[in-house]
Structure prediction request, 463 residues.
Amino acid sequence: MTQNGRRGLGASLGTLLLVIGATCARAGDVSLSARNALATATTAALAWAEDAELVYLENDEALDAGGASARWGFLFRAQGGRVLRAYSVEGARLRHAAAPPLRYDAPPVRDGWIDSAQALAPALERAADELKMQPPLPTSALLSRGVFDRSNPDHTTWTFVFTLPDAPSLFVVIDAEDAKVLKTWRG
Amino acid sequence: MRAIRNGFAVALPLLAAVGALAWADPEPTLPPAGASAVKLERIDADEVESLRFLRANVAFFRAQLDRVREKSVQSDAAAAIVDPRSVRYQELLAQARDGRGTIDGAGSLAGAEALGTHLERWGALVASLNQVEAALAEQSERLDAMESDYLEHEPASLVVLLRVRSGGAPPRLALDFQTGARVESELSIDARAALERGGIAELAHVYVEPHEQTVDLWAPGAADPIPLAVYPESGRMQFLLLEWPPSSEEPPAIEAAAWTEPLGSLVPIPESEPNR
Prediction:
């Protein structure tokens, strides 16, 4: 290797290390969709219990227009629901893990649920129809099963909550398999 | 520069040797004590708020899940010893029901009796109505008969007239018919004046039964009546013209003329001597 070649190799390695370092430094600030944050939570949950199953998730920080959030909260169950574990994933980093001080014996969500970005679009469209105006971004995005679709509780659903000033909140329930609007209500 | 060159020359074979060792021996070997340390990454436990919506509305979530959850209810189906008091209570309840049934039956009997009384009254009322209806029918038959008699058997009419031969006219006269009817005739001043001038006055005009009969004429102050035999005919007018005063014979007799005319005809007054 010539002297110039070695210089070039050293500069390239330095540049690569800088890029990697910068990327790692920004990882906590990156907003991810729910599915992109799921991998981190699932890895942690399987380390907690081999039979861990996801039963619920919601955004822990504000949603952006693309359905992403800087932090997502996940709730897993194990041993058939006898034990729960909650994880909060910020970017790709596990920010919080604890046994939640609540009882929530819901069934696990079905595999194949659409990502928050896909579910948000029809929710915004329906909210615009309901409110007759450009809706604000939803304050909450919830993925659950057996709670919000009484006619077919086996469905896994996305539920978006639009908080309105001086008016009841608008709830829009989206089928988490085909992105169809299942129901809306004010409350 | 040479030193750096020498350094790379030493370091690279060393790194290669370490890599070769790592590939050659998959079994990890413990590093010497104090060479490395394992640290648990600290993650936030309480400072991070997570699952806020779920925490705030967990009661709603659980309530919704309760609606669709299949609940298994365990119960012991094995036979157990029955408390004899429970059996006794059942018997008492059965007896109470029987007593109530008896009372209800008595009430039903009283109701039946009342119903029977009502039915009897109803039957009596119906019988009375039938009697009334029968009486009305009989009355209707009688009316029909009377109407038939009237239409088929025209009544007879009797006209009693008076003429004065001498003296004054009597102030009043009375006639008794066989039917019990009595006609009292008081002559007016004009009638008496007409009689005194030789005229005729009507004492009575009545309908009588069309058969032979006697009419009693009562004169003023007379102790007995003067019988007058008449023969009224159906559908005809019987005229009886009396001549006043009667004879002084004992019993007194009166001269009279009698004749008949069809109903509604003009009445001619006979000029001949009356029959006695």
About this structure: Residues 1-28 of chain A have pLDDT under 50 and may be disordered. Chain A touches chain B through 29 residues (CB under 8 Å). Residues 75 and 86 of chain A are 4 Å apart (CA to CA).
